[in-house]
User: What shape does this take?
Amino acid sequence: MIERTDPWIPESYHIVKTWREIPDTFTMELKPTDGREIPRFASGQFNMLYVFGVGEIPVSISGDPSQRGILTHTTRAVGAVSRALCDLKEGAVVGVRGPYGSHWPVAEAMGKDVVIAAGGLGLAPLRSAVREIVAARERFGKVSVLYGARTVEDILFRRELEGWRARFDLDVYVTVDHADAAWRGSVGVVTRFVARAAFNPEQVVAMVCGPEVMMRYTARELEKCGVVDDAIYLSMERNMKCAVGLCGHCQFQQFFVCKDGPVFAYHRVKSLLAKGEI
Amino acid sequence: MDGEAILEYTDLSQLLSVLHGYGYTVIGPTLRDGAIVYDEVETLADFPVGYTDVQDAGTYRVARRTDDAVFGYTVGPHSYKQFLHPAVVSLWEATRTDGEMTIRTTPAPGAKYAFLGARSCELHALAVQDRVLYQGAYPDPVYAAVRESLFIVAVNCAHAGGTCFCVSMGTGPHATSGFDLSLTEVQGEGAHYFVVEVGSERGGEIFRQVPHRAANADESAAAERVVAEVAGQMGRTLDTDDLRDMLYRNLEHPRWEEIERRCLSCGNCTLVCPTCFCTTVNDVTDLSGQHAERVRTWDSCFTADFSYIHGGSVRASVRSRYRQWMTHKLASWIDQFGTAGCVGCGRCVTWCPVGIDITEEVRGIRLTDGALSGQP
Assistant: This one.
């Protein structure tokens, strides 16, 4: 038998707490079973989460990178693995590999204005970045959070969004695609807030995460406002099996989304996003 | 040992014995089910002596030769990736007890292989896979275990196949590096011998134990003639000039739709390709539910599942899957790994059930470079 260091082996974690955020989306807090610290991660990175005997999926980290004791993940229960993950109770054991991939340019954004634009579940990986920015608020210029959900019931992290909105140093815009008369907020696509947000287009970093079409239009709006394409960052989603560039599933022309991404400067992927089925 | 040496045909089996003596499992060409495939070889009788193959787009036939050539054919449906990067491999096993989970790496088979009869295109394919699976930030442990103990006896091709284009890809036919020993088979006027070149210290150590003599100038020249003639016999050509950028600027070329009408999306090309490395994993449990295993299998970018994310496949059309495969081989592979992913072995052309020919498709796109399909 040959001794190997193995990128395929998950580490054991316990579920400390799990709860539903909105009807199809849940958050879980995890702790290593042997009491060690969680590996250092940066906002925007992801882990591979394994449910015993069911399978493994990539899930972005939604927690604060400065919090070393607990690992927080938020995802939607849509497939066999994410549903099984959602059904697990507190105390259950899951496998974790990671963290993997590129991260949000939080350090590069220091001293500049920041635009955070999220659609749907896209707020999960951006929550890490917002928390990091809020924790060192004085180091950033104007900070805007633009968030769009399908319906009022689909607004993720609603209490946290309200908390951010209550601060004087964050501009928070929330909109939904459809709402009934009880909703007093905005209805429409999130992209239209880009022009309304206060930022200096020459001194801004934009971080965008959501469905591909939402990211494309948001990036386009930002460019219309004078933001250059290398100050805009997107987080791509692709099928992933290994997360270390060996399985080939996440290829996006020359990129492996797992290791070259998921966070990309817009100028690197702009022409590919305009084409279909790459 | 300096210079080239001569190994007589009748002493080839001695080389096999020495390799076996060193504990190698020797993998060589054998005839099975009407094709020349790689398998374990014990004696010279296991080799397809006196056989050749006839290949063209979508067709492969084994035929008798009029001589006793040991290596008188090109490459068949197998490549070495089945040994280094097996089609099915268990990665790890897990046990669950009282809410705890223990995961252990499945022990590597740790096989010690000697590949006897590796063609130049195969050596280049190995070098390509090394870059992908071995030299990156996360070397694949399964590949590494086999790669590190590998012994390679190369063979310079004595004839080119109908779908070969190694000359175009700069990967052959002459094996120049990446081997421990290399053989060039020479026949004629009652003589039948191999001109041997030693490529490594280990190769020298092993070869010293096999009966041989120094090659004279005529014999060395005869071997050179064999290789030079083959270079002029390529069944196919592929113009690689500006190839990456040419493909990148033609992602919306109408040719992709035309290919879609013929392509069955069967994935044969990805299975026979010596460099295609994509895999998927299956997580399974036993009936008790307390033991789980992760099994890795070859996957193909031609399946709909390959690019599936919530909401559907990224590459829903066959057009986009063929485009992914071909542009990966000939264009994006260069960005990813500093080399093309194609070694010109011609397997994808031969084993395509409808005879789609990568060299022909590139030619078709190049001919109308810049044409745009009607699709958005």
